[in-house]
Specification:
alpha+beta; Methylamine Dehydrogenase, Chain H; four-stranded antiparallel beta sheet; 28% strand; elongated; MitoProcess-Associated; RCC1/BLIP-II; transmembrane
Length: 584
């Protein structure tokens, strides 16, 4: 075997030629108690040996005068040994207690360290900003107002009086009228610069059929078909319109502050340049049933349930709001301006007959709504269609990108889908009645669907919302960035009032939904002539009309409109002094 490895036996035997050579090359190893007892096991052995070491008891003073072989000697030796063992046991118990306390202390320190490390990691940004603020920001403590300062309390009577006096200026007080005898228009928010409803004297005595408010500009149509423009710089001005409102559509801009009316025998009007919208493709007796406007487009619903679109801008911002595939943002085809075009893909549907052939069937719609760049239409059977900008899920679809657009109309929710969502807000979960989809409404980037639940005992109106909700405009009592799924406004479900005519408690219905920029008004269908109005959403400009600027995600009731009697009562109670300007 050694030969197989290529080694010589003689060479192995002659590796060390002498003992001196062996001693020179040998390795030395250390031995002794310090080396033999190295390690944890030997350390415990030494500790145990320390406790088990027994000193010589024969040298104890009690045994010095006794003979080793006597019984007394053995008895005393036994007592000394027992005493020594008890002492060692007490020392060992004391040592064990000490070691346990050390271990417990180490565990507490480790636990505190773990918790402290966790808190530091979780609050790293706050701690970093806190300690950085000591040397990065120079704060003058003397400029910090005392929290006990009466001026800091905004709910004192004096502060409320000051705020009300600032709102109720002389023009505000002079315009107050009795609502029961003098109809009029009240404005609040950016359009009037007031956080309380202020009456516009120029509209006194007029019954308004429609009022549109855009930022600080108002366009109103009275019951006689007259059109008025208003803002704080020009006042209510009647403009000359070439046709009636329901029969034709005209597009025009805002009046300049220097526009002067032409005085006539019966009225004075301002020359208003407008452009007529070409209504092509309408039937002989087909009329416009309703029209809604976006940022630069119109959506029309005819009396026969057909949909038409209109481009109202020279260079529109195309986000798919025109509804036809050839006018999609990816195509370069120009959209005709101020000319109505039929949405053939919505007004018609392809159905398969029992024979297997396909035919085109007309589709009819009952309601429409539009946001800035998005449209929604409601079929007669309750199916909901949307198209256009979907950056805030206002098309009822999940967003694929920050600038998501849906240029092709699509049915996003059927009537059964909407009923399935709404039924869980009812006590009977929709088991004792049927649902119907009634109407649509829209705010800036949010849609609202009005539904009705018809039950044998009582009916119930519901509102569903989807789209942008960052400022509370979804009305679901919480702030949501956006939602593609319709959500029920549960705070409006189950509202009841006592009906004196029937002597029963009845559910309060929903009369109308009107959207502003990022705020929404809901008018309840109360019994009697007076209707309660709820508002929710953004309130930065005082859009709620309650004297505040705090937004709300929950529908809140609007305050009662001030009348002369109310102002006199407030004046008598808190002593507000407001000068009434002299009437000319």
């Amino acid at each position: 075997m050694l030969r197989g490895l290529g080694l010589s036996q003689r060479r192995l035997n002659l590796r060390y030629r002498s003992i001196d050579e062996f001693n020179k090359q040998k390795k030395t190893y250390d031995f002794g108690p310090e080396i033999d007892n190295f390690g944890s096991e030997s350390q415990h052995s030494r500790l145990l040996a320390d406790f088990q070491h027994e000193p010589s008891l024969e040298l104890h003073p009690k045994l010095q005068n006794l003979e080793p072989n006597l019984a007394e000697y053995k008895y005393q030796l036994m007592l000394l040994q027992q005493e020594f063992q008890h002492e060692k046991q007490r020392e060992r118990a004391k040592w064990e207690t000490k070691e346990r306390m050390k271990g417990l202390g180490a565990g507490v320190v480790a636990l505190v360290g773990i918790l402290a490390t966790y808190q530091v990691v979780m609050n790293y940004k706050y701690l970093k900003a806190y300690f950085k603020g000591f040397y990065a920001y120079d704060v003058d403590v003397s400029q910090v107002r005392d929290m006990n300062d009466p001026k800091k309390n905004k709910k004192t009577v004096a502060n409320l009086v000051d705020r009300f006096t600032a709102e109720a200026d002389p023009a505000f007080v002079l315009a107050l009228q009795d609502l029961r005898s003098v109809p009029g228009v009240y404005l609040f928010g950016a359009v009037s610069g007031k956080k309380l409803p202020a009456r516009v004297a120029g509209f006194d005595g007029m019954f308004m059929k429609d009022v549109l408010v855009i930022d600080d500009y108002v366009v109103a149509v009275d019951d006689k078909g007259r059109v008025f423009h208003y803002n704080r710089s020009i006042g209510p001005v009647q403009v000359q319109m070439p046709g009636k409102v329901r029969q034709e559509i005209y597009l025009g801009g805002k009046l300049t502050p220097g526009a002067k009316p032409n005085k006539g025998w019966f009225s004075s009007t301002v020359v208003y340049p407008v452009e007529k919208v070409g209504l092509q493709g309408f039937g002989r007796r087909e009329r416009i049933d309703s029209a809604v406007a976006g940022a630069d487009h119109l959506l029309l619903l005819t009396s026969q349930g057909r949909l038409f679109g209109v481009n109202a801008a020279e260079v529109p911002q195309n986000k798919g709001q025109f509804g036809l595939p050839r006018y999609a943002p990816t195509n370069l085809e120009a959209v005709p301006q101020n000319t109505a075009f039929e949405l053939l893909n919505l007004n018609n549907e392809v159905v398969a007959l029992l024979t297997g052939t396909r035919t085109v069937k007309p589709r009819q719609f009952s309601a429409i709504a539009a946001t800035k760049y998005t449209n929604a239409a409601l079929e007669l059977n309750g199916n909901l269609w949307t198209w256009g900008d979907n950056s805030a899920c206002q098309c009822g679809r999940t967003i694929a990108s920050a600038d998501d657009t849906q240029p092709v109309p699509k049915m996003v929710y059927s009537s059964k889908d909407l009923a399935r969502i709404a039924k869980y807000s009812l006590e009977d979960v929709g088991k004792n009645g049927t649902f119907s989809v009634e109407d649509l409404a829209a705010a800036s980037n949010t849609f609202f669907v009005k539904m009705a639940y018809h039950a044998e005992n009582r009916d119930q109106d519901l509102i569903l919302s989807f789209g942008d909700g960052l400022k509370g405009q979804l009305g679901i009592s919480r702030y949501v960035h956006m939602s593609h799924t319709p959500l029920v406004l549960k705070s409006l479900v189950g509202m009841r009032e006592y009906d004196e005519e029937t002597n029963t408690a009845q559910n309060i219905g929903i009369k109308s939904i009107v959207g502003g920029g990022d705020h929404v008004f809901v008018t309840l269908d109360n019994a009697g002539l007076q209707k309660e109005v709820l508002v929710f959403g953004d309130n930065l400009q005082g859009q709620f009309g309650n004297g505040r600027i705090a937004k709300s995600a929950k529908p809140s009731p609007m305050p009662k409109l001030l009348e002369p009697e109310d102002f006199r009562r407030v004046h008598k109670k808190v002593g507000i002094e407001v000068e009434r300007p002299e009437q000319e």
